[in-house]
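Key result, reporting period 2: structure in, sequence out.
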């Protein structure tokens, strides 16, 4: 809980800015001609350096944050790296809007997997919102049949499931330095890309965009981390959902990308479910739930 109105305002600004920067992911991925593995390699290289500097700065200022990962931290890093590969690849094979909207269902997928894996009960409103949002996703995925976008939609679903597992592990491994695990995850992507792809065989234009991508990834992660410390979890989750409309807007402005009607209809259904669910938690006087 923030101590002052100024802190809460700063938290809102930081988390909102994080959502805007994260919203650039689809535009940057599609603007780069390199393959997905090369993109994740460069994104991991630049991102890991910047996030590591941030973690070391935080550790120096607080004197409390440990850099010891243990097996839990390494599991987080590896799982996060795999989800990132699916995330970047999905943008190459489908519309930015489809990836962003499918990813918006991550809180509901997390709640379902948490119930299946660790028997963590979820609220009736979460179940209802999940059912509505998944119907919207079904419309988008179904529209991908015969259009060449089915594979990308499938990758987006796979990435969402991976992200949900990551969230569950973050909750379960409370003593693990999560941000540091994110930096290691990004570095693992760099190592994988270096040995499997040819990350140096890129144009000067792509190299600039790749560095920009890595920088934006690190910046968004840091903004989120700092902002989430200052506001309630429900509020940060709702503000973070703004990444979806930002991603769709940026894709339209910079790529002139307009998704088909089925994606628009399915996306509207998902966004209504997400914002209705998040808005209910955010209302003053409502009990602060666990972040789903």
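The corresponding designed sequence is given below.
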């Amino acid at each position: 809980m923030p101590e002052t109105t100024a802190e809460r305002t700063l938290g809102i600004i930081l988390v909102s800015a994080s959502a805007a920067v994260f919203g650039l992911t689809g535009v940057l991925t599609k603007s780069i001609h390199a393959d997905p593995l090369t993109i994740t390699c460069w994104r991991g290289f630049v991102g890991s350096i910047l996030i590591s500097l941030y973690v070391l700065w935080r550790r120096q200022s607080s004197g409390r944050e440990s850099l010891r990962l243990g097996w839990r931290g390494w599991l987080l890093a590896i799982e996060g790296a795999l989800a990132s590969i699916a995330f970047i690849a999905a943008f190459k094979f489908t519309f930015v809007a489809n990836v962003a909207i499918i990813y918006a269902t991550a809180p509901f997928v997390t709640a379902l997997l948490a119930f299946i894996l660790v028997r963590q009960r979820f609220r009736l409103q979460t179940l209802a919102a999940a059912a509505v949002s998944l119907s919207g996703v079904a419309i988008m995925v179904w529209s991908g049949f015969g259009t060449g976008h089915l594979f990308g939609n499938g990758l987006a679903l796979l990435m969402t499931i991976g992200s949900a597992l990551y969230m569950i592990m973050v909750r379960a491994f409370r003593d693990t330095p999560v941000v540091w695990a994110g930096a290691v995850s990004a570095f693992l992507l760099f190592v994988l890309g270096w040995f499997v792809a040819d990350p140096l065989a890129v144009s000067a234009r792509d190299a600039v965009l790749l560095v920009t991508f890595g920088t934006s990834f690190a910046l968004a992660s840091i903004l989120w981390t700092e902002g989430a410390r200052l506001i309630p979890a429900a509020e940060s989750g709702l503000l973070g959902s703004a990444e979806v409309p930002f991603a769709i807007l940026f894709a339209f402005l910079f790529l002139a990308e307009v998704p088909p009607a089925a994606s628009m209809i399915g996306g509207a259904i998902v966004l209504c479910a997400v914002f209705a669910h998040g808005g209910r938690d955010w209302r003053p006087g409502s009990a602060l739930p666990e972040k789903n």
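Residues 140 and 264 are 8 Å apart (CA to CA). Confidence is low (pLDDT under 50) at residues 285-292. This case is discussed further under Risks and Mitigation.
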